[in-house]
Amino acid sequence: MDTKPLTVDGFLDTVPTPGDAPYTAWFQLVVSPTDDVVDDVIWSCTTSQPGLTHALLTEIQPGDLLHVSGVLTQPASGAEPARLTVDSLEVLATAPLRALKEMVLDRYGDYVVVFDADTDAVPVFTALGRWVGMADNPDTIGTLIETHERAHGGDT
């Protein structure tokens, strides 16, 4: 595996979730190298720093602008996503308070969904933070998960 130090600014994309090990958290960061939304990149991030984990799971919310530093790991297989292991984190700007007030995070077994009062569409992720897809409405979540299970064999 190839690794390199990296520091980026980006917006927290989803509600952070606890990791597999104690004092760990998974989250996704939207990084915009240009002002064009087409160039946005979603970084899959993790941390094992207890202080950062606590902040991510209790204080930081989607939409917050973060300055993170850590180590980017490129997997040996091209099928796996690169992962940024975060060692330091600073909140540069907070999202408006309504972001979490009108959103609900829910688990469907090995999957996490985010309900937003402003839309019927429901983003679906694996518990490990991998994007599954967007369900058109809450009634289609099960179908999306079943399709993902058949294609990928679960939380991969």
Notes on the protein architecture:
Helices cover 16% and strands 45% of the residues. The protein is an alpha+beta fold and 156 residues long. It starts with a strand and ends with a helix. The model has no long low-confidence stretch (mean pLDDT 84).
Total helices: the number is 3
What value does the average pLDDT take?
Answer: 84
Main sheet: strands, sense, barrel: 5 strands, mixed, barrel
* Oligomeric state: single chain
Strand content: 35-45%
Q: Care to count the β-strands?
A: 10
Strand order of the largest sheet: 1-3-4-6-5
Our measurement of the CA-to-CA distance between the termini, rounded to an integer number of angstroms, reads 18 Å
Order of helices and strands: EEEEHEEHEEEEH
| Uncertain stretches | none
* Radius of gyration, taken over Cα atoms and rounded to an integer in Å: 15 Å
Helix content: 10-25%
Structural class, by secondary structure, is: alpha+beta
List the defining traits of the structure above.
156 residues; alpha+beta; globular
Task: Describe the structure concisely.
The chain has 156 residues and is α+β, with helices and mostly antiparallel strands. It has three helices and ten strands. It is globular.
